Structure formats: structure tokens, C-alpha cells
Amino acid sequence: MTATTPRPASAEALPAKPAIRLGDLLFSRAALWSGGLILVILAAVAIFLVAQSIPALTADPADFVGQPASFLDYVWPLVFGTLWSAALALVMALPLAIGIALFISHYAPRKLAQALGYLVDLLAAVPSVVYGLWGIGVLAPAIQPVYSWLVDNAGWFPLFAGPVSGTGRTILTAGIVLGVMILPVMTAICREVFLQTPVLHEEAALALGATRWEMIRMAVLPFGRPGIISGAMLGLGRALGETMAVAMVLSPQAIVSFALLQSANPSTIAANIALSFPEAYGVNVNLLIATGLVLFLITLAVNSIARYVVNRRKDFSGAN
Amino acid sequence: MTATLPPRAAADPQGAGPARVNSYTSGKLPRWAAPALTVACLMGAIAVVALLAAAGAIGEFSLVLAVILGTVSAIALITTISLIAEGRRAATNRFMIALVITAFVVALLPLVSVLSTVLVNGAPRFDLQFFTWSMRSVIGEGGGALHAIVGTLQITAWATLISVPIGLFAAIYLVEYGRGPLARAITFFVDVMTGIPSIVAGLFAYALFALIFGEGVRLGFAGSVALSVLMIPVVVRSSEEMLKLVPNELREAAYALGVPKWLTVVKVVLPTAAAGIITGITLAIARVIGETAPLLIVAGFTSSMNYNAFSERMQSLPVFVYTQYANPGTDVDVYLERAWAGALTLIIIVMALNLIARLITRLFQPKAGR
Fold first, then answer.
1. CATH number of the domain that residue A109 is part of
2. Does a structural domain hold residue A4?
3. What is the 3-state secondary structure (H, E, C) of chain B?
4. Which residues of B touch A4 (CB under 8 A)?
5. Would you call B290 an interface residue with chain A, using a CB distance cutoff of 8 Å?
6. According to the model, what pLDDT value does residue A216 have?
7. Quick one: pLDDT at residue A12?
8. Which among A266, B53, B166, B199 counts the fewest CB atoms within 10 Å?
9. Which of A73-82, A120-129, B24-33 bottoms out in mean pLDDT, i.e. has the lowest?
10. Highest CATH level, class, for B131-364
């Protein structure tokens, strides 16, 4: 310290402003630049994607693989598949996530609760490529009989229209795998918010004679609604961008179809990039990057809305 | 509250509804009733399914079908009995408890299934050769993932080297220096950055390196850059949380002794938060080490050893798993076995990192101030 601090010889020689130490200057600048660098990186991601997309947007669509009529024609089935599979995952995972979060925060014995929370977090630790292997090796064959049964008995319902896929590798299977993958993140956020319910509200409800479920419905769920919404949005963001599980489970086609159980399924943007990029050449590389830009914009919008909802309620500082 | 609560039977005039049960005064089911009923229903369902299978009504005995039947019947039975004995409110309560517990068990099913499948299918090739061989000139049996393990370690190490300084300093800026719109913008965009799809990070790294090295570039280091984009926000968020936990009294005490601000941060704040920060970094590594998509795009795949992250393609463990599955040779089973063994290795690495992170938190947590 003595080396960096110039000592005034006497009291009257004190400078009007304290001398800025070199160490302080370097350190604060390093911190500032690192913070700024994050903004630069994010901007660079956007700029590079846009720059590399432009050739695809201006090129003749006849040069693209599969000869779509236009860029929009190429990207629309992929956008549809992305949104559809993510929506399926969300519909299946959200009620489960709320249930698990309630179980850990309000039903499980206190001593067990944390360990059970870790157990759910372990789901997040499994790499996506392993989920892909599992989806195709275990889940698809196991669930195929259910699909057959559904098509035979509920085929009149448009979503379950036949003919059934013989392998079980359908968009519903991909949706289930995605749902499992986004479960931990949604559970974690719901759990945090439920745990922050004011204890006085809960005790007041119980003191008035409410059963535990009535207490949850009156005190916990209304308080946690913003947390549930933002958790769902973050899970949706994950599901939109998830690549390998979908790429491995689906054998994709460029179609727009809501049918859940047929062997012809729309692909997703991310899966299409992963499958096509290694063999892509020329303007097709730009084409794939342009679809990546579309994905980037979609997830950016979803995540921004989610963060906006979370940040509006500052009480949820612990909620990721 | 009057709107959400149904009108009480107790509020009724006497004798108005003889069929309704007053949930305040009616009897309660004993504590063992619900667990006992659940066990009984599961047993019964297994017996019924076994009988049906024996009679040939369904193909073969299916435990899954039995468990589903048992669960559904248990929920229905408990709710009905409670409705009769305890009244509607208590029945709703019991129904929701059953649903919540079922949700938790359902969530554990994929976890158990994934782990057991990986363990069973990965074990046959989880041998010495798997860790000492690359895939060079291997067609069919044999071969290993040494090149992929080396690649994963190198790519992740470079990604950590890039991310940790940037992330840590950004966190220090946010906690110690940051005021005003810039800090708020960084906080917001770090949150947004956590949501960048991994494949987009890969495309970014490709676009960046294609600018320098030309089209079709594949580099291990480009993979590290892609992973850094995913890793930096995680490091920032976890470090920020930990730095915020450091009590302000410690900083003030240091200032009172005349310690410069930067030395306060280096000697007082960082050591206090060190355990939490290291935990966060370990978890961040665990998150990116399993990433497949960006590496598939920018690091490429190869069957040969490559110790240099700055030239040529570099195999990594997740991509190894994917390529073994996606491009099998004539003997598919051999390739699939290698893929499962790779998956097992990957899961062991990730679980070990998670375990280490928890141990660090537990062992090195500072004792004061919490």
C-alpha cells in the first residue's frame, strides 16, 4: 500500500483532490471493460448473424437445397415446428413443474425438501445429447403402443389422426423429451417464488380454517403468478432453442402439420441447422445462419418478456 | 375470500341439507388411510393386470400399465372415501395432495430411466480401450474416445479461461462499481444472454472465425468461443449473487483502515466469496461441457487425435456420442455401444462436477454473517 499511496509531507500540502491510485484505476477500468464487453459480445452476435444472413436473403432461392420458392417458404415450416414442439413441451411440463414446486415448497417434509430439490436439478445436469439417445432408444419404442392405441381409439380427434408412426419417433415424443429438459428450470423458479409467499398470509388462511389446498389457492398461487409466468417463458425459451434432442428424435420433413402421431413431422430451426450444417456449402451456409437469426430473434423476444415480468416484481430477487 | 370459499354447511339452517357433510364437525380419516389405500390399490392393480395377462386378454404383463391403473384408482378411491366421510373441502384437499405427489413421482421417472439406461447400455464398452484409443482407422469393433475426451478437456479449458476473467470482472463491476444505466443494461442483457440458444452461439462463432480464416472453418478454439458465449452469463450471475452476500461491514472496515478499494476487493471481498464463486464456475463448466450443437457446427468431428485447439477439426465427447449414433457403419450395435459408453462418461463427468460444486459450498462456506 505504501508503494501506491503518495504520502503528503505535511498537513498543509494535502492536495485538493485525493490522488487516484494506479491500482484502483486499472482495477475499475478492467471491471468496466469486462462489463462493457458483455454488451459488445451480444451486439456482435446480432451483427455477425445479420451480416452472414444478408447473402441468403438476396440470393436466388433456386440455389438453396430443396429449391424452396423463397426464403420465407423455407423458413416457415421450421418456425412452425419450433413453436409447435416448444408449445407441446410447455403444455406438458408446466402443470408438472407447478406440482413439483408445490410439493417441494409446501408438502414435502422440511428436512427432505432440499434433497428432493437437488434430485429435480439433476435432470438439468444430463446433457442434451444423452436425452436424444434416451428419447430414440427408450422413450420412442416404449410409447409407440400408446400412440397406436390413441390412433385406433381417438383417431377422429384431428391431433391424433393416423396413420400412426411405426417407430414412435414423432413430434409428440420430441415434445415429451423437451418437456423433461425444461422441467428443472421451471420448477426452480416456481419453487423460489412459492417459498417467498409471506408466511403471515399462509398462516392467516390456515387460521381461518382453510385446508392446505385452499391456503395454496388463496395465498400461494396468486402471489406466485408472475413467477409462474416468467418460469413458463424461460422454459419456453429453452425449448425453442434446444437442438440435439429434436435433431435425434425426429426424422424431419418440410411440412406444416399439427398431427402428433404420424411419421411425417416438421423439423425445428435448431435441429435443422445441426443436421444440415456439416454438409452445407456456399449460400446454403448463409441460409442456415439466416434461420438461426430468426431463432435468435424469437428467443430474444420470449426471454425479454420473461425477464421484464420477473424484474417488475423485485421481491423475486432469488428467482434466477 | 367469500368468493373463493364455497358456502359452508355449518351456515345452513338446521336440517336444510341432510346429505351434506359438515367438514368442521364430521369425522376424519385416520392418518394411515391414504398410504394404506395407495399400497392396496397398487397391489390390486398389479394382480388384476397379471390375471388379465394370464387370461390372454392383454398381450403380456406390463408393470407400467399396472402402476398407472393403480395410481388412478388410488386417487379416485381416496377422493371418494374422503368425500363421503370428510366432506367436499377435505376431499378436494386430498385430491390435490395426491396430484402433487404424483407430479413429483412422474418427474422422477425420466431421471431414473435415463440414468439406468445409460448405466446398463454404457457399461459393456466402459473399458480400458475406450479411454486409451482414438477412432482413427477403426471400422467396426474396438476403438475409443480418447480423442474426444482430450478435445472436450481442451475446448472446455479454453472456454473457462475466456469466460472466468470476463465474467468475474463484470460481476465485480456490477456489485462494486456499477451505478446508473450501464449497470442496469448489463444486468438485463446478461439475463437475456442466458437464453441464447446454444446453436446460435455456434453460428456466431462460425461467422466470426469464417471472417478470419475463410469459409468452412472448423477449429477447437472456435468451439471454445461459442461455449464462452454460453458460459459468461452463468459466471456473471452466480458471482454477482455471491459478491452481494459479502457483508458491507467488511468493506467498510477495510476502508476505515485506509485500504484502497481495489485491494479491498482483492483481499477482502473475493476471499470471502471465493467458495461461492468457485461453486458457480464449476456449475457453469458442468453446463457447457455437455453442449453438443455449437461444437458440431464449429469444432466439427474427426476420428483422429488433435492436441492443438488452434488448427483443424477437434472431436469432443458430446459430438462423439452424436456421430457414433448418427453415422453408424455396417455393424450398428458396435457404434451404439460406443455412443452409450460416451454418454456414460459424459454423465459421470457432469455429475462429478455437480458433486464437487456442492462439496466446495459445504466445506469452504465462511462461518460469519449468514
1. 1.10.3720.10
2. no
3. CCCCCCCCHHHCCCCCCCCCCCCCCCCCCCCCHHHHHHHHHHHHHHHHHHHHHHHCCCCCCCHHHHHHHHHHHHHHHHHHHHHHHHCHHHHHHHHHHHHHHHHHHHHHHHHHHHHHHHHHHHHHHCCHHHHHCCCCCCCCCCCCCHHHHHHHHHHHHHHHHHHHHHHHHHHHHHHHHCCHHHHHHHHHHHHHHCCCCHHHHHHHHHHHHHHHHCCCCCCHHHHHHHHHHHHHHHHHHHHHHHHHHCCHHHHHHHHHCCCCHHHHHHHHHHHHHHHHHHHHHHHHHHHHHCCCHHHHHHCCCCCCCCCCCCCCCCCCHHHHHHHHHHCCCCCHHHHHHHHHHHHHHHHHHHHHHHHHHHHHHHHHCCCCCC
4. 260
5. yes
6. 93
7. 52
8. B53
9. B24-33
10. mainly alpha
